[in-house]
Design a protein that fits this description.
- The complex is a heterodimer of chains A (190) and B (282).
- With 190 residues, chain A is mainly α.
- Chain A has one domain.
- Chain A has nine helices and no strands.
- In chain A, helix 1 packs parallel to helix 8, helix 3 crosses helix 4 and helix 4 packs across helix 5.
- Chain A is globular and about 60 Å long.
- Chain B is α+β, with helices and mostly antiparallel strands and 282 residues long.
- Chain B has a two-stranded antiparallel ribbon with strand order 1-4. Chain B has a two-stranded antiparallel sheet with strand order 2-3.
- Chain B is elongated, with a radius of gyration of 27 Å.
- The chains are: A mainly alpha (190), B alpha+beta (282).
Amino acid sequence: MSVFEVFISAIFVNNIVLAQNLGNCPYLGCSKEKGVALGMGTSVIFVTVMATLCTWLVQKYILVPTQLEYLQTLVFILIIASLVQFVEMFLKKAIPPLYASLGIFLPLITTNCCVLGVTLLVQREQYDLFSALLYAFATGAGFLLALLLMAGVRERLETCRVPKAMAGTPIALIMAGIMSLSFMAFKGMV
Amino acid sequence: MVVSSILTLTGLGFAAAAMLSVASRVFAVYEDPRVEKVTGTLPGANCGGCGYAGCEGYANAVVNDPSIPPNLCVVGGAKTASAIGTLTGKLTTEMEPLCAYRRCDKNAGQVAQRFDYKGIPSCAAAAALHHGSDQCGFSCLGFGDCVKECLTEGLRIENYIVVVNEQMCVGCGKCVKVCPRDVLQLIPKRARVAITCSTKDKLKAVMDVCKVGCIHCGKCVKTCPAKAITMDNDRIQIDQKACLEYGGACGQACAAACPRDILRLRPGALPCPTEEEQKKAG
């Protein structure tokens, strides 16, 4: 697949949230304001790329030679969790302003299934390192796009007269469903 | 098979643990332990009444910057101020307890409607459409944008106008910032007189729309012996600090002089001194 196709596929056609239904918790939890959505989205892009790099190397040089591919999920969770902790410490020391803006999102990402999902999908598709990183970045960008769209919709919803029983999470879930449906129109493009 | 998988996972776990423990030493950031203690004493409401982004922001600033006073927290009041003073070794001066005050009485003034507003139920939206539906361009619109901001139950809407519950109000000023018409104002809780109109219009323009609007006659400005009342930016303003320092000896002359009942006495107002007391005071 060409670079362009990977991008279109990961952002629109196989959007991680809207088409594959991964990472729904931060999708609903962090989409109340555009600023928060942007922070969470960029954090996810960053962590996804880092995690894909680490897990790809571990898979190739530890798990495959020792024939332990069936431990993939467990090992990847372990790696992602410790990686996020490490990044948090590093940022706190080295780049305090970035830590101040991303800091609160990093612990949330530790258990984000969107990150784990990308690392596992990369292995299933048998990507080489370069296209794996590219795919991880594009998927993160797709997540950011979904989050921003949702935040825009929910900011508008704040000023609408929503029936009391539907206000808050119920209407957000309905919006998520409709948005997912509209993204289904991209199917078959790539 | 089992042994090798257990060994691999344990090994990876140990490697990760070792890396993290080394990292925690290498990347350790020294944090003043007092910051955490100060954060603990603060109410944790993150209202921004002190002028910093949340309680942690103020705690950081008050510990690290010697020029910042320990009494900026309006919600915690005197108790918190003295606790922070002891923690940071700063001199604590008492903070004046504040509360919000509504500078409008459109119901008493019988302010009429110019049109029937049926849009988004928020003051900000209503104010943006032809300066609101009220005849007066400075009235309280009563959609309660301020009520949504309130941390306590200090505000409520009654008869299309906001009502302040001064017992509950902590004086953080969130409502003052959110009001699109600048109707609410922070005043000291023990203030003796407050102004109940914020109009910038003059004479006839006010007389036509409201029975209790300020016509800017300036009688109060001339009457005040403490020179605490001024015409500032086309609005009557009371310098509450000067007013409170002068005390009640004037018998709230400004309120008595006002022909439009805009300067209103508050519960803290002292009774007018009798002639004997005036003689005593000289």
